[in-house]
Amino acid sequence: MPTAEEDRASRRLAWCVAHVMRHAPDHVVTDMIGRLDKPAFKYLCRDEWLSASTVTLLLRHGGESDRSYVARNPRVVGRPLPGLPGPARYARRRTPAELLPVLRAELGRDPLEEPLTAAELIGLLRRHGRRPRVALDVLALPHDPDPEPLLAEHLRLPLPAGSVEALLLALDLPRDAVHGLLASAAPRTRFWYRPAVRAVRMGRVTHEELVAHVTPAHRTLLLTDLTGARGLRWTLPERTGMRTAVARALRPLRDDPRLWAELLRHAPSFPGTLPVLVARIVRGTLPEPADAPAVPGLAEAVRSVAPGGAEPVAGVDRELALASLAVPMESVQEDIRWVRDCLARGLLSGEDVIRHKAPACWALDEDHWLGEVDHPDRHAPAAPVIAARSEADRLFALALGSDPDAWWRVASTLPDFAGTLPHLLLRVTEGGSVSGRP
Question: What is the reported pTM?
Answer without folding.
Answer: 0.90
